[in-house]
Write a structure and sequence with these properties.
Four copies of one chain form a homotetramer. By secondary structure, chain A is of the alpha/beta class. Helices cover 38% and strands 22% of the residues of chain A.
Chain lengths: 326, 326, 326, 326
């Protein structure tokens, strides 16, 4: 992910100069630095954050070190784009929110890149236009081909996958989640022993809208992310699997042919453009001294909802979420 | 509905002769009898059921008189296709099931016409083929344009609309529902005061599959019935709104044009072919002395699940369903 | 084809009794007669046509014997549904038209079943409604998986496949074809040596509308029949390959999954409903003493256009068609 | 177009600095220069081309001045991205090709931006992969909502619209066009008096592949650009009108609802991403001293084919094209 962002900044983004990389893995970062024309390398990310020639930082480090690095960025007053999660629990997330607030300047953008995806942006604009009336329901689908992680646990579906749906629901509906219920179907045989996959999560918002979520991380087919919004006078769907090329194909064995196309293999392909637009918007806003994307508070609140979701995954009953006033 | 079936039998079905109509509304039934070339008319449906020249009966009468009419058919030993609901409550449905069983002959088919719809039949065949592995989830959507009924109540969404989804879930998955939870979003402003619309219903089956249902009877757009089945190695969707004619259309005001097509206005249009196939299959089976479609037991069990659903609509929590052995 | 029609009449059509079959192949027709409950069999079709208990005849015999059989039907005054082609050349077709006219009664319907296909009917209604203005262009696509015929020749693409497109163009546009140009691309390697496949045919109508046709009978994928109508204020497409079931599928080898569905393997599957509706409409009209589908004149004119098309296939240049006044 | 490119270079492209603008219209260029932070302005484009601080030039000037400006760029040895057409006739295009060749350095890229559109790139990759066998046919569709130009003439459809299809056909098939036939349907009533719109153009390539083209510039619906490639074992379509957001919409008058979405209003929306990718690729290649997109020879050959197309538009018969060896 860090390498993706580095290449993106170096080759596809206007108005930014990539000046330094940091990674404890010297071999990996060295090869990348060479590919990118001999850019400076720091072994310690905190050294990079402290450098005079750094105006803004992208954090793609493990979530467990985010708090320390974010606080360093805030202390130095540099803009930072932090891949999700903001931090690993709501207490540390709150400390980041409060440090940023104490500093008096907006500096942190969280990497919920879907808010920059053209389809999501169009859906948001359509819902906000009021042309379809009030939005009553969202149906969100999130499928991954598989999860290679050997220690994968059910909670990681909530924390790493459902978290995107939670942020999207809050953003699309423009209101807070007040409860979450996680329902556990009998798992697919492709999940590791003991892992609940797929999961159904039901969110309720402050105004009473309901959001159903299917998260299925061993779906075998590919990366499918879809939203259907149901409003008073119409509905809208984004994320239909469509590669742009629609084919008819003969069956090599002489059987029935088929029509259709490939499914995106992973989030990199599906959200490539969203990442480019996210980073360009972050660079542009940082140069103006602003934050225009999801904030540290968005990261904090999504962590709060995920925490409640993990409780509901264990109990099966709805768990209330208390969101502090903004 | 009765007139539709009469015209269907008279003009589109092989192997049947329409010999008599019964309806307490003399003017209405008289006009229809004339249209259909002077067919016999009975004021009392029980007289029709008792007629010597009647081998088989279609009941499209109000649900409240179904029990009496069904028992009369069973007593005389004539085949009967009964529009849903079988009867108005599970006790009377059970009496019908037991009367039929006591008679020793299969005579009753319930009008769950979707089981004859070509798309549903193909989906069922695909799931049963095992090509996609075990089915883990169903997502069912059921939208009506509006409900004209002046006394419409929230429970009728469960009893008259959700009942179709319940039967489809049982049939597609080949197993029984063990619990139902009905979730109440804030209603659309197009629903009557006090009516919960849309509703989200969550079913769980004996094997642990989960079925999510959206039922929305004042959706304004049209009649949309859709199923997505999610299995271990793939998914399948039927009921995408598609009229067969895909158009591009200029905006009369000179604005952006649009692509797409019309949505079916109601179930008559959407399921026209399903009704024809249902009635043809019923006629063919009746002549062989068999019942090949949904049975009285299917009608009874769906009523049991609906009864639990109405309890959950009131309480918001999951309600268990006890299905008697077949 | 004859067996399909016999089964259809016996099991899916209201208002008709199948009373007799005729086929020189005794074994084949005997088995079918047995399947259909011991129906009468004639070795000579002319004997069947002459039978007292026959009111209406379906001809699914080879085109080379159509003239004699049609003239016999006309002479006896029985209604006849004749599979295309009406006859093998325009001279004999004209003799049939004139014999029917001399008899003073409309008796012949030609088997252009697409005119009864629900999608075609909706497209025709849309074009006739005038909502999109005048129709300027049709783009027609006609693909078969393969042609098993060992003596297949390029002309047969015009006579047996393009003929359907010619009839559809005349019917959809409501006017006559005045010229035809057949263009010969380099053939697919799946065509027999010397066969021009695919072919592009350009029709021009009396009002100056242009119809482009792709006919490709060794397309390998399946049976794809599609029309796009382009009008002054919009366009409409029918025949998009869509089975009704839309699937996502995992790649067994672990590669990218795909979305889509199967393509109809042949015309029997694609036009099953059209055939049912065609035969039901023919039965209904015959009982009223009318012909409501494509007439002998439609069969004759399509043969005229095909004859010109075969000339253009040889020369590559447009060939004018003279259609006699109706 | 020039302003679009200037804004793109200033805000969305990595590795380029926008240093100067030139436009004889002082007011227009002054406003744009101010928007872009006080960039230098030249009244005479030749002055800009001669500037020391200019390494590469984008020409979005009228086609009539392209020859002079291109020759100036070639003489100074600066890279140039020239919007189509290369020049107004094949003689002047040939002079540019020869001047570039004489200079010994590749410097000119022509603005056929579709070659950078992700859908076109995927289609090209699919055809080149050989997975579907040899490509036999292309069907290309090119519709504009309307042409505002008061002096619009039929030839401009060939020169300004069909030219894109010609370039795409050459590129997708990897071979030259050997003949072109333009067919003139009766025009839409929305075309100016005397303008032939739509037009059907048939191209034949050196290997015998056939390309059908519909160009319709007063289609009223929007900007629709579509290609269907038909190969020996499958077909592929790009450009289906799909905004990414699929909606169902209630009819405000209470009639049938509809499904679908908006059509792109113009090429700016449809090909926005293609333009970004084109300019980024041009900047990257120019910095390496290379040309990676369509060359001056591509511009010259497309002009040759268009010239033949304009002759065929007048005569209606196929016109041969002689393409010089590369």
């Amino acid at each position: 992910m860090g390498a993706d962002h580095a290449r993106r900044l170096a080759t596809r983004i206007a108005g930014a100069s990539l000046t330094a990389l940091a990674d404890p893995d010297e071999g990996r970062v060295g090869a990348l630095a060479e590919e990118l024309d001999g850019i400076a390398v720091h072994a310690d990310p905190l050294d990079l954050i402290a450098s005079d020639d750094v105006d803004a930082v992208v954090l793609a480090s493990p979530g467990s070190v985010h708090e320390e690095q974010l606080l360093a960025c805030i202390e130095r007053g540099v803009h930072v784009l932090c891949e999700k999660p903001l931090t690993m629990d709501s207490e540390s997330s709150l400390r980041v929110v409060e440090a940023e607030r104490a500093g008096g300047r907006d500096l942190v953008q969280v990497g919920f890149m879907r808010r920059f995806d053209p389809e999501y942006v169009r859906l948001k604009a359509l819902l906000d236009s009021g042309r379809m009336g009030r939005t009553l329901l969202l149906h969100q689908t999130h499928r991954n081909k598989s999860v290679p992680h050997p220690d994968f646990r059910s909670e990681m579906i909530v924390r790493d996958s459902l978290v995107h749906e939670i942020d999207c629901a809050r953003w699309l509906l423009g209101e807070e989640i007040v409860s979450i219920q996680v329902i556990s179907p009998t798992p697919t045989s492709h999940a590791r022993e003991g892992v609940v996959d797929p999961q159904i999560a039901i969110l309720r918002t402050a105004s009473g809208a309901v959001v159903t979520n299917e998260v299925f991380v061993n779906a075998r087919t590919g990366y499918e992310v879809r939203v259907e919004a149901v409003a008073e006078r119409g509905s809208a769907i984004i994320g239909r699997p469509a590669s742009g090329v629609y084919t008819t194909t003969a069956d090599p064995g002489g059987g029935d042919g088929s029509w259709g196309g490939p499914i995106d293999p992973d989030y990199r392909v599906r959200f490539e453009r969203a990442y480019d637009l996210e980073v360009q918007a972050w660079v542009d806003a940082s140069r103006r001294g602003e934050v225009v994307g999801p904030t540290s508070r968005d990261g904090y609140v999504s962590t709060l909802v995920c925490t409640a979701g993990m409780q509901s995954l264990a109990s099966g009953v709805p768990v209330a979420v208390e969101t502090p006033g903004s």
